[in-house]
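A.,

Following up on our hallway conversation. Structure tokens first:
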């Protein structure tokens, strides 16, 4: 197993990083062409993926390093434009690997399809009628998508709820039926939609009601992934701050997010800074993952933290995360976009469950990176140092001038485009 610990990776040239990546992960020349081509996603492919195509839009693709998850080494592809995210996640992963790495697991992987029924003469009787025909409906759903059954998946359960059944409700009363489907290694959106559309006429006949919506739910709370890390305080020591001080600062920062939605939104945005780049890099639906994660953060009635941080009896910092993770490694763009396929290959991902575990572990790392910075020197010190390069480019710097201007911006503590333009003009004189 090749180590994800690659000292000095950030100091290498892009060409050196590519060569190391190719050798370490035994990538083929064809796979590497996805990284070296000016247009890895061809216009022809893009035009067949979505409508009204006029071009493609690129993001930086970087590698998160140092990750050890369930004893396996991972170099993690991350597609993101924001400075310091990859560096922060890699820094925390280095700390956690010294503490034994992340532990992660995926519980049952069931996606949910919903059918909305209105206009029933008696909703309670309609509910019982559906439950009495549960086996028939499940078989009909499987018959609508037999290929998933052949792969070992298919419908696993069915339940029914009645919404708005109190007298003072301002909304229409409705029956909501859920089917729960094992989608194997696919995210399963098209699969679920095909199934619920196929059985909708049967549901209408059983309930004597009218079916309107029949579609998957992106609140995948039956497809949860979680990760955990346990870190001795000495590994957290930073500058003038002891490990215990950093640990306590992280816990206080978490408690703030757990208590206040205004803080929780920013706290969780930082978590998604680690999650979204992997979801994007692997061709998955980051909007679905975002929506499900934020809904799960409000499952107890108030929007709160997606992570928990605490101290165990030995004084270690303990971090945990659990989120719905509706991702796949087959279907959609995962096998159509060449960089998505390459990203899965670099991580040597064998299942959708494994991908979900990696994603939440990186989200937990990114959260600790942000909280550790906030609890010590502040978020701007490291972030703005990395951001200075982008500012230098925006100010007109190019080539070797970029580092010169970026360093001067940091030295003068004025990391803004106007100052960069001044420095560029001075450099040219």
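Then the amino acids I'd put at each of the 429 positions:
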């Amino acid at each position: 197993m090749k180590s994800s610990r690659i000292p000095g990776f950030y100091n290498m040239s892009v060409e050196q990083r590519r060569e190391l990546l190719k050798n370490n992960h035994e990538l083929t020349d064809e796979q590497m062409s996805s990284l070296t081509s000016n247009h890895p996603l061809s216009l022809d492919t893009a035009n067949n993926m979505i409508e009204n195509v006029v071009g493609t839009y690129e993001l930086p693709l970087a590698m998160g390093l140092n990750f050890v998850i369930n004893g396996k080494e991972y170099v993690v592809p991350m597609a993101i434009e924001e400075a310091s995210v990859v560096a922060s996640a890699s820094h925390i992963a280095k700390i956690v690997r010294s503490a034994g790495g992340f532990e992660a697991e995926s519980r049952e992987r069931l996606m949910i399809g919903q059918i909305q029924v209105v206009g029933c003469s008696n909703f309670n009787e309609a509910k019982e009628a559906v439950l009495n025909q549960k086996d028939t409906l499940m078989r009909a759903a499987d018959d609508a998508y037999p290929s998933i059954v052949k792969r070992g998946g298919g419908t696993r359960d069915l339940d029914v709820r009645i919404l708005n059944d109190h007298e003072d409700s301002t909304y229409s009363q409705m029956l909501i039926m859920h089917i729960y489907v094992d989608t194997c290694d696919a995210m399963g959106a098209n699969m679920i939609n095909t199934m619920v559309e196929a059985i909708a006429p049967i549901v209408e006949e059983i309930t004597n009601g009218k079916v309107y919506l029949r579609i998957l739910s992106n609140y995948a709370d039956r497809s949860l992934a979680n990760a955990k890390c346990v870190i001795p305080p000495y590994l957290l020591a930073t500058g003038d701050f002891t490990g215990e001080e950093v640990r306590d600062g992280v816990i206080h920062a978490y408690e703030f997010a757990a208590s206040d939605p205004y803080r929780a939104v920013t706290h969780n945005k930082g978590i998604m800074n680690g999650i979204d780049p992997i979801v994007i890099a692997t061709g998955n639906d980051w909007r679905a993952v975002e929506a499900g994660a934020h809904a799960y953060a409000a499952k107890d009635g108030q929007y709160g933290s997606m992570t928990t941080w605490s101290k165990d009896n030995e004084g270690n910092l303990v971090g945990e995360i659990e989120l719905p993770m509706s991702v796949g490694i087959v279907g959609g763009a995962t096998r159509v976009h060449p960089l998505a396929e390459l990203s899965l290959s670099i991580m040597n991902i064998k299942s959708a469950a494994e991908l979900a575990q990696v994603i939440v572990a990186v989200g937990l790392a990114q959260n600790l990176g942000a909280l550790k910075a906030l609890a010590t020197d502040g978020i701007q010190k490291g972030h703005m140092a990395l951001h200075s390069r982008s500012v230098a480019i925006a100010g007109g710097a190019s080539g070797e001038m970029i580092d010169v201007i970026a360093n001067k911006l940091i030295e003068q503590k004025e990391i803004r485009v106007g100052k960069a333009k001044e420095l560029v003009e001075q450099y040219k004189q």
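The longest strand covers residues 154-163. Curious whether your intuition agrees with the design.

B.
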